[in-house]
Amino acid sequence: MTEQQFWQLVTANDFFADPEIIADELKSKLTTLDNDQLAAFDKLFSQKMRLSYEWSLWGAAYVIAGCNSEYGFSEFRCWLISRGQTVFETCLAQADNLADFDVVPVKDDLPYPFLDEYDLIAGMIYESRTEDELPFVPSGLSQPRGKRFKDKSKELKKVYPKLYQRFWTQGQ
């Protein structure tokens, strides 16, 4: 599986669709793959999850939607991957640049940059076919890379000026 094939499969067709629809689209695409391709896809997805395990991105998730849990940050990284290669790589280079893209859906009048269990879809398909699990790809990190973000409004405004202006609310 090439990077290009991976991104074609994982990128959502409609960034503002309901998360379940986005997950169902990926599931539909992945069911056409054979088991080796499915394993290769899962390995690439795991690598992208590991690559995005950074405090700078967690800080961006915090500014956008108040993300303050490991599970929520995992859902955020799944969502970020689903936005495609350009958005993903631009945000890895500078998390605040996420504000330059119109890709954040709204749920109950609040930004909702999360996809629940998007990273598990390939494994679930593989397991239903083979009754075996895909090889585990460890994250290799006990903590996100980089320096932990400070959750004080003043600091967030300084580090994430574009995201802060676009998404920050005093209710967080």
TrEMBL record:
Residues 1-127 form the DUF4240 domain. InterPro entries: DUF4240 (IPR025334). This is DUF4240 domain-containing protein. It comes from Pseudoalteromonas tunicata D2.
